[in-house]
Design brief:
Strand content of chain B: under 5%
Strand content of chain A: 15-25%
Oligomer: heterodimer
Structural class of chain B: mainly alpha
Radius of gyration of chain B: 23 Å
Number of strands of chain B: 4
Helix content of chain A: 40-55%
């Protein structure tokens, strides 16, 4: 599955320039040193242990030991420091990308003020940071909206480019489904009265910043679990190394302390321990760059786990509007006459459906159209439920079957069987039949059809391979729904859906132990969004929906739910792959270090030196250097994430075990040998 | 190897494998209170037990209550046995007028039998009265095995149940495990052994005049009944000091075959029991596949190394076959090696030869079998729950790589589960490495070791590994009957037993409470060759990474120093 991260907006291009690695490595390097502070490092216990051993080794360098040349001890100490620095660098680099974006966002919000409504109804200018949930503010054209909120009065155009990167202004008005506004966006016309819905620190902007900043980031559940395992492994290896000295004494030998420290650091899972937080931050950053704001990392991980996607038909599976797919002349009417009639009836129709009819017919029958001035447009009204034009004294109308029949005073039974059959066929295929008449004469039918987005079928097929079922949610009748479902290739349909039915369906799936993801925008979607394990609200939706959901898509593109699932999976796979790699590495390190360590006690253990490393010192130093460098080598993978192919779990497991498990076993043998040869050639040991 | 060696191996696998699926299903039905052909016989006994004890068989317990009941029962068992051993000279059935045990040794023995370890720092015929053997040790042989079985079914229920708060009733599980699970099989085996010539008597030891004209005291006693449960309950504590190397414990080739098969008969069957609990026998086959893979790897290495001529005797004038020192001469090298591998793979600990005389590599196989936590069949119940812990670790390590939160049979593995798994991962390192290191640092230890160099270290390592793994077999050579070792090894056994049981019960409780996700195409595949390989590698990797340095100082160094 590929992830289209297409942000055409010009603002985005500047952003990506700022987040390019080339611009980030310098500040990251500085940060790597700042992060040596143990208070910061305690978030990553494995690295804290490495730092402590680095300190210990540095001290040991000052204590002369006949068995370890100081020259070697100093190098070991240096590489231990490098190990910590490399891990810090990875984290700083991951943070830097998000930070660049967060900083530009923050800059806009500094010094913002707001006109807050006081108890007596008057307005008072206060700093935006003093606004609390429930406060009411008034914003006029040209001003910035001081915080997330809901429009309670007025209608205005808002430029949300600062948040979404989309420069075209959007309309926000009280009531309805477009009442939510986001802080730090600019009003370009009119005025709004807004009720603030977020305290400082809880707004969309704050959340965006918190997601990508490592220090404030909350660890996700899987990360916590993995952290515990890594601490456990560290503890085990600590016991292994600490007890080795008494055992060596029992064998009448003694092991140099520096070497024991080196053994400990190479055994504990430094690779994953060092990259764990970078992986998490980079994953969140990918989400932010996709313009999706998650309220917590938990939701992103849950997205990787979902079994069922509830997808709204309109906007996600099909384009929002139905399009003309064909016309059928009534018996006795020739095609040209129908085409002309249908075209005229639609010329004044500004809706997307009307336009699609005009487009379709223009291509079908070139015809000299009258200019708009010659027409008297009759817009759609709730009363007649018809639209059309009056032209040269003739009355052209189109509309739903029953409405139009009523208009021309006919009954359904009166329809000629040929036309009636055609209408039924359209309905059965999931389309909507319209009838066209001219001066009371029935000309024929227009076939309006939901158009399934290109590529969506393939997307669903990929999801199915990953074991994720898609359920199409639609208000259509079951027949229509089934036809579109078949075309789009979804697994199941929830037809004639109401918010209650949607909620019940989610509960039902959850009771069976499945995790459900959905997206929605209306206020009536809020309960379902809250119930779903992953609920993604559209940014242009209602505030209620945005609050109930655990993610907000700033571009209001429901298809992005699929990308979020992908990111969630990548996040988990990357962690798992590097953990496996890290643990598998230990085998080779044992073969490098054990013979070197015990050389003075049992020289016969030299047989285990399968890599033929040149000397005990070189073996231990090579293992330490490899251990540090592998972190650097894997930084790009940690930041980019491991790609998740559309395949069954068994296939994914086989592939990743082969690459990261078997690879993790073999790579260090080659790596340590190469470093050993280099160190020997450079006379560093 | 001779043809009869191959026949022994084939017969061994047949006796173990053929009844396993049926026995496994029987255990499931019995533990779940379903009707079996034994219900008419034991049903009334079972009901009387509940009435006398005041147990409501329908009342299920939360994991905390289940654990408390288990701890209380084990503590009571320990105190009873401890008192019997201390005061056996005041108690009946002591025809040899044997004195009570010294208190540290009594502590060690009581802990040893309560924890299903059966480490013996004494020689049964020389120190214990018939009452101590029968009412003390044999009772614990039964209930310690039943305890393991109870913990296993609690874990099985935890995995199998959905959104449940209870794990069953400990008292009911114990009663059923003992009555239906252990007694009938033990009766059969005991009768068979009596037929083959194992003594079962309260009579006084026999004084005999040997052909050399020397007076000899031939110890007797109610041996058959104890040997049956010692084999079937993976206990291993011999009636006589030299265990099944004594002709009264293991008199014939047939007795030998059934005794060695009995070691893993129940553990293998319990793998199938698990499959019935989770309604998916594919899981059982995968786990069994892994156990057999590990067993065969260890067995092959051990056999191969025992048939190597000793290079230190590389004199062309000496014709070498397999070294026979310390082997059971009646059953040959294969017979001894098969027993040695089986007894350490399962946490049995009985022997029919001298473990100390094994080749270094063979000795290492025995050590590794125990170091991986006694999960290659393992103890009754204990082996399977230990194996399930490894399954969970493998699933957690590799499970992320399919892009989902790791799940086993629909149950998510989260921070709490990983926490408990990590506790169990620490048991063997603490028991073997930490306690071993302390013992190694005590000057008195070195004095009691019979061999210098790496072999001496192996002897020490073996003792602490055997105790922590609740195995009970000994490498000998280490003078273990000192107050220091009695107490330290006792501590090792406690850590090795309850360091698993307590987290396992908490894990069972935590898993039971979880919802269960449906298993489909996107679930982590826990059956099939890929998972068997993954599981096998995980077990070897986790165990190997923990113990390779210590093994390098012991058996590996010894092997290399012999000039192979």
């Amino acid at each position: 599955m590929n992830m289209p991260v297409n942000n055409a907006a010009p603002l985005k291009t500047q952003e990506s320039a700022k987040t390019a690695i080339s611009a980030l490595w310098r500040p990251a390097l500085v940060q790597a040193f700042v992060k040596l502070d143990p208070r910061q490092l305690k978030r990553s216990p494995v690295m804290l242990v490495v730092e402590l051993t680095a300190i210990l080794t540095t001290v040991l360098c000052l204590v002369p030991d006949s068995s370890v040349p100081t020259f070697v001890a100093v190098q070991i100490a240096l590489w231990l420091w490098f190990t910590v620095l490399f891990a810090n660098f990875a984290e700083a680099l991951a943070e830097g990308r998000g930070k660049a974006r967060a900083d530009s966002l923050k800059a806009g919000s500094e010094g913002l003020s707001a006109r807050r409504q006081e108890a007596d109804g008057s307005f008072k200018v206060v700093p935006a940071t003093s606004l609390r949930k429930g406060d009411v503010v008034r914003v006029a054209a040209g001003e910035m909206i001081p915080g997330d909120g809901e429009v309670i009065e007025g209608i205005a155009a808002v430029n949300e480019a600062a948040i979404t990167g989309e420069s075209a202004p959007v309309i926000r008005e009280s009531g309805g489904d477009r009442s939510a506004v986001t802080g730090n966006t600019r009003l370009v016309s009119d005025w709004l009265v807004i009720r603030i819905t977020a305290n400082p620190g809880e707004s969309t902007l704050d959340r965006m910043i918190a997601l990508v900043e490592g220090a404030k980031r909350q660890k996700t559940p899987n990360e916590v679990a993995l952290d515990i395992l890594l601490i456990g492994l560290t503890l085990i290896f600590l016991l292994v190394v600490v007890t080795l000295q008494p055992f060596a004494h029992f064998a009448n030998g003694s092991l140099p302390l520096v070497f024991l420290v080196a053994l400990l650091v190479t055994l504990i899972p430094t690779t994953i321990g060092g990259l764990l937080s970078a992986i998490g931050i980079a994953g969140m950053d990918r989400l932010v760059r996709l313009n999706v704001i998650a309220k917590s990392g938990r939701a992103v991980e849950a997205a990787g786990d979902v079994h069922v996607l509830l997808l709204d038909k309109t906007g996600t599976i099909t384009f929002g509007n139905r399009r003309c797919a064909g016309i059928y002349a009534a018996p006795g009417v020739n095609g040209k006459e129908l085409a002309e009639g249908a075209l005229l009836a639609s010329l004044a129709d500004d809706t997307a459906e009307g336009k699609s009819i005009v487009e379709y017919l223009r291509a079908l029958h070139p015809y000299t159209e009258p200019s708009v001035q010659e027409l008297t447009g009759v817009p759609f009204s709730a009363e007649t439920r018809l639209s059309g034009v009056d032209y040269q004294g003739r009355v052209y109308r189109k509309g739903a079957v029953d409405s139009l029949l009523a208009f021309i005073g006919q009954k359904r039974q009166d329809l000629l069987p040929a036309l009636s059959r055609e209408i039924d066929k359209i309905a059965q295929s999931g389309g909507t039949p319209l009838l066209v008449c001219a001066d009371g004469k029935l000309l024929g039918a227009i076939h309006l059809k939901d158009v399934v987005k290109p590529g969506i079928r393939e997307r669903f097929a990929e999801l199915r391979k990953l074991g994720i079922r898609t359920v199409m949610v639609t208000g259509d009748n079951p027949l229509t729904a089934a036809a579109i479902a078949a075309e789009a290739g979804v697994d199941d349909v929830l037809a004639e859906a109401t918010p209650e039915k949607k909620l019940a369906r989610i509960r039902h799936e959850q009771n069976d132990g499945r995790l459900v993801a959905m997206c929605g925008d209306g206020a009536n979607d809020a309960p379902a969004l809250a119930q779903a394990d992953v609920g993604m609200a559209m940014n242009d939706g209602t505030q209620a929906a945005r609050e109930a959901a655990n993610m907000v898509d700033l571009d209001s593109d429901p298809t992005k739910l699929l990308d979020v699932v992908q990111i969630g999976k990548e996040l988990l796979v990357t962690r798992g792959a590097l953990t496996t790699f890290s643990i598998a590495n230990d085998v080779a390190k044992y073969f490098a270090i054990l013979p070197a360590l015990f050389a003075s006690i049992y020289p016969q253990l030299g047989v285990l030196n399968v890599m033929h490393l040149s000397s005990p010192q070189s073996a231990i130093l090579s293992a330490i250097v490899f251990n540090a460098l592998i972190i650097v080598v894997l930084i790009p993978l940690a930041l980019r994430g491991v790609r998740v192919q559309a395949a069954s779990a068994a296939a994914l497991l086989r592939r990743n075990l082969l690459i990261y498990g078997v690879g993790g076993l073999l790579v260090p043998f080659a790596g340590i040998k190469a470093i050993d040869m280099l160190l020997t050639a450079l006379h560093l040991v | 190897m001779h043809s009869y060696d191959y026949w022994l191996i084939i017969a061994f696998f047949a006796v173990v494998l053929v009844p396993a699926p049926f026995l496994g299903r029987f255990y499931y039905k019995v533990m779940e209170g379903q009707r079996t052909w034994l219900t008419p016989v034991f049903g009334p006994v079972e009901r009387v037990c509940y009435r006398v004890a005041g147990v409501d068989a329908q009342q299920e317990q939360s994991w905390q209550k289940y654990m408390l009941a288990l701890l209380a029962f084990n503590l009571a068992g320990f105190l009873l046995l401890f008192s019997i051993l201390l005061f056996q000279d005041y108690l009946p059935l002591n025809p040899q007028q044997l004195p009570g045990q010294e208190w540290t040794q009594a502590f060690n023995t009581a802990v040893s039998f309560m924890t299903n370890t059966n480490w013996q720092s004494y020689s049964g015929e020389a120190t214990l009265s018939y009452l101590s053997q029968m009412a003390g040790l044999t009772v614990q042989n039964f209930v310690s095995a039943a305890t393991g079985l109870a913990v296993l079914v609690a874990l099985c229920r935890g995995i199998g149940r959905k959104s449940a708060s209870t794990l069953g009733n400990f008292w009911v599980d114990m009663t059923r495990a003992t009555l239906y699970g252990l007694l009938p099989l033990c009766l059969l085996l005991a009768l068979f052994l009596v037929w083959q010539g194992v003594p079962q008597t309260f009579a006084h030891y026999v004084d005999a005049l040997t052909l050399q004209g020397v007076d000899q005291v031939i110890p007797l006693g109610p041996a058959a009944s104890q040997i049956a449960i010692k084999q079937l309950g993976t206990n291993g504590g011999g009636f006589f000091g030299v265990n099944s190397a004594h002709p009264f414990e293991d008199p014939t080739a047939w007795a030998n075959l059934f005794e060695v098969a009995a070691i893993i008969m129940i553990p293998v069957a319990l793998v199938f029991t698990f499959g019935h609990y989770v309604k998916d026998l594919r899981q059982s086959r995968a786990i069994l596949g892994c156990m057999f893979a590990l067993f065969l790897i260890g067995g092959s290495v051990s056999l191969w190394s025992e048939y190597q001529p000793n290079p230190t005797l590389s004199n062309p004038a000496v014709e070498q076959t397999a070294p026979l020192e310390g082997k059971e001469a009646r059953f040959g090298t294969t017979g001894t090696v098969l027993w040695s591998v089986t007894t350490t793979a399962a946490s049995n600990g009985s022997v029919n030869g001298m473990q100390d005389s094994l080749s270094p590599l063979s000795g290492m196989v025995a050590l590794v079998n125990m170091m991986v936590g006694e999960v290659i069949f393992g103890g009754v119940g204990a082996g399977m729950y230990g194996m399930l812990l490894n399954v969970l670790i493998a699933v957690f390590l590799a499970g992320l790589m399919i892009g989902r939160t790791p799940e086993y049979l629909g149950k998510k593995l989260q921070a709490r589960e990983v926490q408990l798994l990590v506790v169990t991962l620490l048991v063997m390192p603490v028991g073997v490495l930490v306690l071993g290191a302390i013992a190694a640092s005590v000057p008195a230890t070195a004095a009691t070791i019979t061999n210098p160099g790496p072999h001496g270290f192996s002897q020490l390592l073996y003792a602490y590994t055997s105790a922590s793994a609740n195995n009970g077999s000994a490498f000998a050579g280490l003078g273990a009957n000192t107050p220091f070792h009695n107490l330290m090894l006792g501590l090792g056994m406690l850590i090795g037993r309850f360091g698993y049981i307590l987290p396992v019960l908490a894990l069972a409780g935590s898993l039971a409470m979880k919802k269960s996700a449906p298993i489909g195409q996107n679930s982590f595949p826990t059956h099939g060759p890929l998972f068997v390989t993954l599981l096998t590698v995980t077990i070897l990797l986790v165990g190997g990474l923990t113990f390779l340095p210590t093994l390098a100082l012991g058996p590996i160094a010894e092997h290399l120093s012999m000039g192979f």
